[in-house]
Amino acid sequence: MKQLSVLIFLTLVLCGCGNRSASVPATEPEEDRDAKAMLQGFWVDDDTEEYAVHVEGDTVFYSDSTSMPAYFRIVNDSLVLASGAAYNIDKLTENLFWFRNQNGDLVKYRRSANPEEDSTWVHDTPHIMTYTHQVKTDSVVSYGGERYHWYIAINPTKYKVVKHSYNEDGVEVDNVYYDNIMNISIYKGAQKLYSSDFRKSQYNKYVPADFLEQAVLGNMEFSSIDAEGLHFNATLCIPDGASCYLVETLISYKGELKMKTIEY
């Protein structure tokens, strides 16, 4: 009986040890701090002779004034950005930094030899761009013997939209734009039939979420008038790209709203 109790005890101990081993999380690869220290400073593109990046601490600042600074680590001979994008380092010395971009092309940087000029292009706070065509438009249209006066006001906001793209060196960067709010107002004589603001979040049923996240509500235009009401077209685009969604906004004579995607 005593031997049986000892056997049960040993079995429980072994099981407990096994469970503890299985629950220990895998450790992250150790960062190469010596390589990060060597990367500090200003770097010039070896081909164009122009400033490329400024590395300070754990942050990369790009020469493009519209690109957001990016947190980085150096792990397993790769430069790893906060987004998870990783670029294999071919050579890193006191004066040379060579790496492979997203296409596998070799990008060559060398340390700046003009320390007195280095600070002239530092962009700690990137320039945030607006994306709109016009501020206000209006017109009078007729249907069924009645006249309707419509107004569209485009109001730039401070709501930031982050667009993910690649710079000339094939490195992933984030550019920031300000989104817009559109206002549509419709009058029949002195009677207000409709007035409301439109934000891009209202189009989440008509535009895929991953597209909408990087898109800006760039424009609103009057399209037509018919028995259903007044038709307006909202344009949602990823800035500086060819991709856009055109969503029809129909406002009836009773002030009721309907939407549908008509082009993308």
Quick recap:
With 264 residues, the protein is mainly beta.
Oligomeric state, counting identical vs distinct chains: single chain
Outline, from the CA principal axes?
elongated
Structural class: mainly beta
Q: Rg from C-alpha positions?
A: 29 Å
Number of separate strands: 17
* SSE topology string: HHEEEEEEEEHEEEEEHEEEE
Report the major sheet: 8 strands, antiparallel, barrel
Q: Spatial order of the strands in the main sheet?
A: 1-2-3-4-5-6-7-8
Strand content: over 45%
> Between the first and last Cα atoms, what is the distance in angstroms?
78 Å
Care to describe what's here?
The protein is mainly beta. It is 15% helix and 50% strand. The chain has four helices and 17 strands. It has an eight-stranded antiparallel beta barrel. Strands 9, 10, 11, 12 and 13 form a five-stranded mixed sheet that branches. The chain has a four-stranded antiparallel sheet with strand order 14-15-16-17. Strand 1 and strand 2 (51-56) form a beta hairpin. The chain is elongated.
Please render the helix and strand layout as text.
Blueprint: H1 2-23, H2 33-39, E1 41-45, E2 51-56, E3 59-62, E4 70-75, E5 78-81, E6 86-92, E7 96-100, E8 106-111, H3 115-118, E9 129-130, E10 136-143, E11 146-166, E12 172-188, E13 191-198, H4 209-214, E14 216-225, E15 230-237, E16 244-251, E17 257-263
Parallel strand pairs: 9-12
Antiparallel strand pairs: 1-2, 1-8, 2-3, 3-4, 4-5, 5-6, 6-7, 7-8, 10-11, 11-12, 12-13, 14-15, 15-16, 16-17
